[in-house]
């Protein structure tokens, strides 16, 4: 394939002096999407992308196979309100999952179908929360991928919308008071009341009474606090206890308060500090037995469950119920109390593989384990709000589409409650968990998924994330299965910065320790090569968002290790990232360029600033989304221009710029098209013969 010439991109003499260090930024003009020069450059990149990828071998095969594997559909766990339950399900051929309700008489009906709201497929259902009686539903939708959720209320019995939209409700929890007459929620201040450029911040907690104007909503919390704070809010089932949490951006710590709503009014709750200024994450569950259950990583980086009286919620009164495990990370719990001996079900991940144990609710004594379908991922444990003996949990693994399992604590049996509705033929794959050592000797785990009996070296995609305490766990992926079925290998490294080994593992890959994440990835690549799984000319690396930063660092730090790169919705200019999207909420993870020491961390690896002329870089595909309000596509635009200018090899640097999509949820057809382009590109440049 003869490579097309790159679109011209001027290099301006823009240099910042930061803490005495000169920082060039020749493509700053690409930060403005409305600049005619930017528009012209993007149009030329679109033409180049089409010319380079339009005839890629295997593109149609990948498109068809990914679409077929996605026809499995999905199913979500039930949310119970008395004898009514609600759940999400996507059937074969549907673009989005639909919210269903099953009424007390057993009749099932669709309650919210995003395609019925908007036949273009651009509207997504972002969140939903029924009231405590199951009569009203609060739900949030956004359009075109911008994630700017608007909040509405619906009468569940009739499906009639009764209120909304309430705007500025992105990432808002909804906490109903009993009776469905009022709820707490989180809303940003109007743009007219905040400094220019800070419209995405300045959240507050409000009380809204159904049937009244939002102009009458009472501000409960948040005034005068950190602008990047996120707030959580919940109300106990009996309506007595209010819980409010505050986290600065995505920091792995929170402040926490409770209020007794019997002793103070919902409009003016008297908040009592549970923890403040403590470097730990804590959440509370008000039990039906009147006790307060505390989920925390305070003094327990793998987390523990404690118990106390709600009247004395502070840490000095906590009693360990489920202590920290030295190897597994505690992820979830549920209480089943309609039994002679009430129990707590406790979810764990052990090297990213899920398990559930059963414990005496009073003493914490381990009584046994919940049978699970295999070595995979459990997606939360749900119980009935009024108690009972049943629990439901999601389950998936590399070859199993999402299922919902039901556990009966009376019999100790787990049964299939609901399967994904589509019947698909899933290819046979072999999954192996391997352990390798990083540059400093740290042991890192990696899942390697390959065709049965595969002999290397084979075209291989190495995937990682390594940030924000997010764990890479097994799950059904149409893209992975299509790649492996075609003869490739797919490896998922559980890098530092994630949550696979608890909060210490996360912190070993953030702030001043971010280079550990990149070292872990380089070591994963070297292990795959040394063990004969692949070779440098057959190895690709892929990642998105924070994982886009990861692969940006990979291609600039070790271009020799990789033949190809897919970099999706990435952070790449780590000097100016705080100025765009939600960047200012992430300086607790990365650091800020405003501080000299933290600037040194960022500048040591910022991919955009480490592109060097005359280097042979891997074939690179940037995939970005025009409506992304989390990570602005300018990161990829600037990096693409820099790499196109610097590239010494005859390997393409391409940009796929998609309109009317964002960072998160999207229609299935858009997912298929993106996967087909990415997989075909990686196949072409790793030698996967199709």
UniProtKB/TrEMBL annotation:
List, for all copies, the residue spans of the domain called Peptidase S9A N-terminal.
Answer: 7-418
Q: What is its EC number?
A: 3.4.21.26
- Keyword Protease present in the record's keywords: the answer is yes
Show the GO cellular component annotation of the record: cytosol
Q: Which GO terms describe its biological process?
A: proteolysis
Q: GO: which molecular function terms?
A: oligopeptidase activity; serine-type endopeptidase activity
What residue intervals traverse the membrane? none
Q: Which family, according to UniProt?
A: Belongs to the peptidase S9A family.
* Protein's UniProt name: prolyl oligopeptidase
Q: From which organism does this entry originate?
A: Planobispora rosea
């Amino acid at each position: 394939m003869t490579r097309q010439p790159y679109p011209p991109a001027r290099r301006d003499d823009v240099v910042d002096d930061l803490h005495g260090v000169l920082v060039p930024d020749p493509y700053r003009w690409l930060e403005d999407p409305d600049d005619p020069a930017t528009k012209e450059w993007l149009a030329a990149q679109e033409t180049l992308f089409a010319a380079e990828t339009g005839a890629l071998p295997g593109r149609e095969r990948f498109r068809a196979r990914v679409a077929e594997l996605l026809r499995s559909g999905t199913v979500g766990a039930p949310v119970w309100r008395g004898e009514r339950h609600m759940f999400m399900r996507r059937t074969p051929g549907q673009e989005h999952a639909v919210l269903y309700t099953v009424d007390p008489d057993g009749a099932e009906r669709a309650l919210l179908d995003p395609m019925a709201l908007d036949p273009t497929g651009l509207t997504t259902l972002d969140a939903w929360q029924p009231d405590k009686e199951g009569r009203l539903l609060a739900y949030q939708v956004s359009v075109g991928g911008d994630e700017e959720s608007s909040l509405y209320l619906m009468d569940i019995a009739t499906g009639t919308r009764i209120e909304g939209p309430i705007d500025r409700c992105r990432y808002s929890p909804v906490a109903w008071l009993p009776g469905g007459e009022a709820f707490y929620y989180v809303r940003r201040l109007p743009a007219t009341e905040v400094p220019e450029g800070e419209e995405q911040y300045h959240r507050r907690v409000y009380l809204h009474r159904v049937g009244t104007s939002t102009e009458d909503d009472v501000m409960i919390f948040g005034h005068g606090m950190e602008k990047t704070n996120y707030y959580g809010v919940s109300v106990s089932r009996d309506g007595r206890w209010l819980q409010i949490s505050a986290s600065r951006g995505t920091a792995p710590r929170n402040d926490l308060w409770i209020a007794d709503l019997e002793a103070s009014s919902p409009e003016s709750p008297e908040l009592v500090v549970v923890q403040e200024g403590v470097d730990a994450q804590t959440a509370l569950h008000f039990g039906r037995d009147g006790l307060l259950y505390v989920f925390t990583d305070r003094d327990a980086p793998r987390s523990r469950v404690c118990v106390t009286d709600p009247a004395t919620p502070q840490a000095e009164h906590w009693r360990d119920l489920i202590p920290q495990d030295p190897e597994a990370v505690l992820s979830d719990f549920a209480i089943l109390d309609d039994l002679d001996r009430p129990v707590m079900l406790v979810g764990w991940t052990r090297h990213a593989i899920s398990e559930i144990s059963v414990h005496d609710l009073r003493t914490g004594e381990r009584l046994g384990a919940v049978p699970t379908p295999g070595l995979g991922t459990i997606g939360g444990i749900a119980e009935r709000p009024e108690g009972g003996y049943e629990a439901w949990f999601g389950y998936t693994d590399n070859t199993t589409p999402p299922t919902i399992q039901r556990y009966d604590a009376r019999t100790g049996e787990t049964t299939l409650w609901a399967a994904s509705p589509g019947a698909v033929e899933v290819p046979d794959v072999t999954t192996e968990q391997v352990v390798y050592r990083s540059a400093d000797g740290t042991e890192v785990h990696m899942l390697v998924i390959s065709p049965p009996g595969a002999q290397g070296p084979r075209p291989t995609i190495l995937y990682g994330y390594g940030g924000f305490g997010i764990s890479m766990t097994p799950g059904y992926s149409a893209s992975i299965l299509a790649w492996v079925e075609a003869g490739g290998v797919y490896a998922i490294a559980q890098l530092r910065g994630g949550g696979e080994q608890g909060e210490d593992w996360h912190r070993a890959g953030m702030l001043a320790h971010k280079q550990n994440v990149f070292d872990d990835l380089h070591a994963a690549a070297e292990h795959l090569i040394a063990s004969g799984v692949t070779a440098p000319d057959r190895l690709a690396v892929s990642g998105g968002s924070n994982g886009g930063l990861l692969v940006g660092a990979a291609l600039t730090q070790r271009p020799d290790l990789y033949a190809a790169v897919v970099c999706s919705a990435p952070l790449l200019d780590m000097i100016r990232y705080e100025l765009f999207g939600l960047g200012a909420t992430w300086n607790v993870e990365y650091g800020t360029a405003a501080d000299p020491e933290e600037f040194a961390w960022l500048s040591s690896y910022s991919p955009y600033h480490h592109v060097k002329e005359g280097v042979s870089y891997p074939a690179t595909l940037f995939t970005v989304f025009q409506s992304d309000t989390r990570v602005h596509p300018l990161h990829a635009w600037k990096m693409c221009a820099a790499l196109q200018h610097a590239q010494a090899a005859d390997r393409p640097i391409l940009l796929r710029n998609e309109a009317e999509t964002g960072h998160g949820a999207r229609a299935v057809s858009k997912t298929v098209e993106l996967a087909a382009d990415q997989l075909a590109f990686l196949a072409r440049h790793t030698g996967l013969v199709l």
